[in-house]
Amino acid sequence: MEPRTTELDPRYSDPKAGALPWHQAQERLAAAEMFWLTTVRPDGRPHVTPLIAVWSAGALHFCTGPDERKARNLAENPEVVLTTGSGRFDEGTDLVVEGAAERVTDETRLRALAAAYEEKYGAEWRFEVRDGTFVGDGGPAVVFAVAPRTAFGFAKGDPFGQTRWRF
Fold first, then answer.
1. Which of 82, 111, 116, 145 gives 20 to 30 Å between its CA and that of 158?
2. Cα(first)–Cα(last) distance of the chain, in Å?
3. What SS3 state is found at 122?
4. Which segments of the chain does DSSP mark as H helices, in order?
5. 35 neighbors 52 (Cβ within 8 angstroms)
6. What is the arithmetic mean of pLDDT over 40-65?
């Protein structure tokens, strides 16, 4: 999926900065090991948790136990934000993906995602696919896909820059 628009925000960017191409952002999303997921509790308060995810078919994919707080939040409100980055002020690129989390239940797609998890994170993250879920040592896990509606890239260092992609 390609963005409808890519724009550098001059308010938050050095005059030397250029917009980050989407393909570079996708490469960073695919390589990132750790993400922070923000969901909304039923009472409107935010809930943030770290998790692992894989980039596949134009979306970030993550899994969670069906009774975990994030799964319960998503049952009420699918709107999420996923963030990743270097954690440093002066280097790297932080990425923010906004969108709606959609449950993935197609077993062919789930098998491909299970293989992607194992390839990226190792045999410790091996899942079987059963009844529209991942099944691992921790029991069943529901899988969600978040295709970006809007994404931001924050280049840090020299030059600083903020790119926004709209889909």
1. 82
2. 8
3. coil
4. 22-31, 69-76, 107-121
5. yes
6. 98
Spatial contact of 57 and 146, defined as CB atoms under 8 Å apart: no
Name residue 60's amino acid.
L
> What is the architecture of the domain spanning 5-166?
Roll (2.30)
Question: Contact, 120 vs 114, CB < 8 A?
Answer: no
Q: What angle do CA 131, 129, 78 make, to 5 degrees?
A: 70
Alpha carbon 74 to its chain centroid, in Å, reads 15
Q: How confident is the model at residue 55 (pLDDT cuts 50, 70, 90)?
A: very high
What CA dihedral angle connects 47, 101, 55 and 156, to 10 degrees?
Answer: -50
Q: What is the largest CA-CA distance in the chain?
A: 53
For residues 62 and 144, the answer to whether their CB atoms sit within 8 Å is: yes
**In 10 A of CB 44, how many CB atoms?**
7
